[in-house]
Amino acid sequence: xxxxxxxxxxxxxxxxxxxxxxxxxxxxxxxxxxxxxxxxxxxxxxxxxxxxxxxxxxxxxxxxxxxxxxxxxxxxxxxxxxxxxxxxxxxxxxxxxxxxxxxxxxxxxxxxxxxxxxxxxxxxxxxxxxxxxxxxxxxxxxxxxxxxxxxxxxxxxxxxxxxxxxxxxxxxxxxxxxxxxxxxxxxxxxxxxxxxxxxxxxxxxxxxxxxxxxxxxxxxxxxxxxxxxxxxxxxxxxxxxxxxxxxxxxxxxxxxxxxxxxxxxxxxxxxxxxxxxxxxxxxxxxxxxxxxxxxxxxxxxxxxxxxxxxxxxxxxxxxxxxxxxxxxxxxxxxxxxxxxxxxxxxxxxxxxxxxxxx
Length: 358
Known about the structure:
Blueprint: H1 5-11, E1 14-15, H2 20-25, H3 31-35, H4 53-56, H5 58-70, E2 75-77, H6 85-92, H7 105-113, H8 115-143, E3 148-153, H9 176-192, E4 197-203, H10 206-223, E5 229-233, H11 248-255, E6 262-267, H12 271-284, E7 288-293, H13 310-322, E8 328-329, H14 337-347
């Protein structure tokens, strides 16, 4: 039970879980379910704030974790994709643009200093990590196979790389230091809740990701404790991170100094269009490679909202394994526990990509 994830990755392809948001939608939750008693009086709609379910519907979130674990996931992610004070402000702070103003660093300084938002962000991250820890340990004890909790760190709703004002290309709504501060709080709470590793994921803005990685390093140095770090980017049709437009190779060069446990691609365009970019990354990087794509392209007529079913995803990820491209595999948007079960079965006993583990 004490086996490290790095050792597991030398022996087999590890499985990461699927889409929390997609799976939540199958439970038919309403705005009232999201709010519960605690947020009953909130002035803004909260239903799209999926992270908040960790506080208002913890039984559902734990059930989803259990289902992914029983489907074969070695790694489950905390329900914290948007659990920073910056992202939570979208749901709890009046938007100045509605009254003729604009969001700017002064606005976000207020967000960073807001005690309600900082307290809420801490609670979501810590509680979500504890929920994952409980379910991972429960299934591990029942199966005799260790399971790992990845503290999920998402990309934010603001960009450090681009200006939202076409007439003022130098303008940024938020500063690097403000983003780093928000991420440091998230990192500390994820660690306090019992995460085994930290996952900076769905990177569409490399500068935002850089702030997250700086935050992680500062927390490690200040608190005297380190965890393995996974890094995963979202790419467009040209293989570039979406806003900052770095190529796959340039992205790796920008983050390799962190010496992560793994680097990879997630979300994005679906597995078929991701293949060449994953292949390039696999060639360039000297760490483990992760891949958890969307279940194809969005399709509102599909049961999950995406085109590909479990068998489709299993076939594509199986091809990645045959190409010697991956060490960690799973699914992003549109991937339910059924998708992950199919992927896990397809990759069982498949040889992992060779990599130079430290």
